[in-house]
């Protein structure tokens, strides 16, 4: 277990933003993770758990307390059953499952971050969510001071949400178990129209696993969503805002506002989101409110490749980023009456 004091946290995040932590511990085993958590809890020290840092916005003042970086390793396949240590690099794990001929998470290729973060956010993209394949989450329960096994049904998964996100100070994820599918080298049925089009297929079709993964990686790269140290469009947290889910009456009011603003023929994106709810596109809202690709003149700007990504152009501060985010939120609210919600977790700051 490595320990540093007054340790920079910016290099541990994909934004490359944020001040130092009073203390930074890097834990390489589950036992070290638990020991560090218990020590912080016993002493009343604030604790910040860091995995891949791809979903964090840390304030410029840093974090007064213990930052715990989970660097555990472990990739275990037993037939179609997969177990990942929380510190495993997610996109590498996806590649290994594809190489093993197993389907279920191939469309989640290229997503930055660690395996332990995936159930917290219920990570999803291109028609797949981890909640569809996770069977159990092994976590340390800070309330009972025990290691617990939480089955899928008790994880309360929903769109970009879970019980872990709802109660962030209770559980520290140690390992995640998945049930994948052996489909003779083929992918899971395609659910996302853009992916199907890029593959020359139809939604519901299966395609060779490697082709599905490579196509998703190309799509993500084109949007600046695959990490590249030389590309400032990837100095981001990916999608900064979640897609709004509106009640039927809210969506009707929103659609009327769209037609009033953009013309009677204008149709906002609409996707079924469960009984009495419709999901619309945050990217569409941002663009139609006037915040187009590359928007901004300062060191924090909207990506030149995707309107949902706010980026650090190299010398931004967290306050620069937040100022841009607040401008976008205010502009979308004024234009369409919808308040966007940030997807990344904020530490020491609020939007």
Automatic annotation (TrEMBL):
Name of one Pfam family that matches: MurB_C
Location relative to the cell: Cytoplasm
Active site: 160, 239, 343
Chemical reaction(s) catalysed: UDP-N-acetyl-alpha-D-muramate + NADP(+) = UDP-N-acetyl-3-O-(1-carboxyvinyl)-alpha-D-glucosamine + NADPH + H(+)
PROSITE patterns in alphabetical order: FAD_PCMH (PS51387)
Involved pathway(s): Cell wall biogenesis; peptidoglycan biosynthesis
Cofactor: FAD
The FAD-binding PCMH-type domain, residue ranges: 17-183
Top-rank taxon, per record: Bacteria
Protein name: UDP-N-acetylenolpyruvoylglucosamine reductase
Native species: Streptomyces nodosus
